[in-house]
Amino acid sequence: MDQPSGRSFMQVLCEKYSPENFPYRRGPGMGVHVPATPQGSPMKDRLNLPSVLVLNSCGITCAGDENEIAAFCAHVSELDLSDNKLEDWHEVSKIVSNVPHLEFLNLSSNPLSLSVLERRCAGSFAGVRKLVLNNSKASWETVHTILQELPDLEELFLCLNDYETVSCSPVCCQSLKLLHITDNNLQDWTEIRKLGIMFPSLDTLILANNNLTTIEESEDSLARLFPNLRSINLHKSGLHCWEDIDKLNSFPKLEEVKLLGIPLLQSYTTEERRKLLIARLPSIIKLNGSIVADGEREDSERFFIRYYMEFPEEEVPFRYHELVTKYGKLEPLAVVDLRPQSSVKVEIHFQDKVEEMSIRLDQTVAELKKHLKTVVQLSTSNMLLFYLDQEAPFGPEEMKYSSRALHSYGIRDGDKIYVEPRMK
């Protein structure tokens, strides 16, 4: 249901966290805080506020009474204001400046691109460590202003902002560890390399759903651009050649990679994709969210050698020669047909006669009896069958269930089936 327009932060706060909607419960682990009543705050005794406030999709357009915000929110550490109608950074600043212990702020899906963020307003965000600006269409100028005023910022989310390019900040942000910039339109590596320049301490880079087509950079340059990168997510990027995968080895600290849904891997089976990637990326310990165990790495590297052993020399990757040096030249794996046998040759014994026959194992006992009717000259209703496994220690087993399939008996070549007339 649509929320009414023009609602203030304080109005929504009072409504949502009133005793009727958010009753205070005593007990360990509830995470609810009731600050002491300040002078001149008639509403103070009526609100029970947790340290994590979730006020998304409430139609908030402005801050409201700043003194009340300061009185109620002194203990708040996380604030979710996503999907509201905040379009003025001044109003956001009025809220944040009165939440002194705020560390996490989510402003996703607010129309904040309609106003300019001035540095004095951005200064009120100084203590924030995690900032989410997804689908806010925040300009790079706004991002730069934030970076200059948030000295402790560690995680920044810039998804769904329609970025086609990256604008370099005049100063580096040494504190940022995680950048989440998925679902944009970044296609050229020259734009991605700017992120390495701006965020030299980056630990995690999430680039999923950008149509990045190639990694155009020398190995030495990649190591300098992302010297601390531990994890990279390239899900559904446009990478289409193995050389781009090999270049990931240039990141000196990389140990986690996500690479699902890229054009390069479409023609391979699930097993081939994982093994070929593991073999090419010797330093990673987690691939697509799954730990790479030592045994799996060795299996993958041996698979890699056998996979490329029949390729022309000019098509064999350098990694192949490295692995041959490690394991030696391997013999091709023997081809073993693991499909179940469809037919066997058995001896049919009836009275004093013995006849060798080939029988299908997918048929039932009843169907076998029909097949034997002309051989032993007995009707199916007057026929008893006994199966003798040549290695069985207990003698013949009566085949008394008409609907039972022959393969369930484990019949093999050389076994015997005895036919006897039913005693009347």
TrEMBL record:
Location of the Ubiquitin-like domain: 345-420
Keywords linked to the UniProt accession: Coiled coil, Cytoplasm, Cytoskeleton, Leucine-rich repeat, Phosphoprotein, Repeat
Location within or outside the cell: Cytoplasm, Cytoskeleton
Pfam families: LRR_9, Ubiquitin_2
GO (cellular component) term, any one: cytoskeleton
Domain of life according to the entry: Eukaryota
PANTHER family, per database record: LEUCINE-RICH REPEAT-CONTAINING PROTEIN 51
Function as written in the Swiss-Prot or TrEMBL entry: Acts as a regulator of tubulin stability.
Name assigned to this protein: Leucine-rich repeat-containing protein 51
Organism: Bucco capensis (collared puffbird)
Taxonomic lineage: Eukaryota, Metazoa, Chordata, Craniata, Vertebrata
Gene: Tbcel
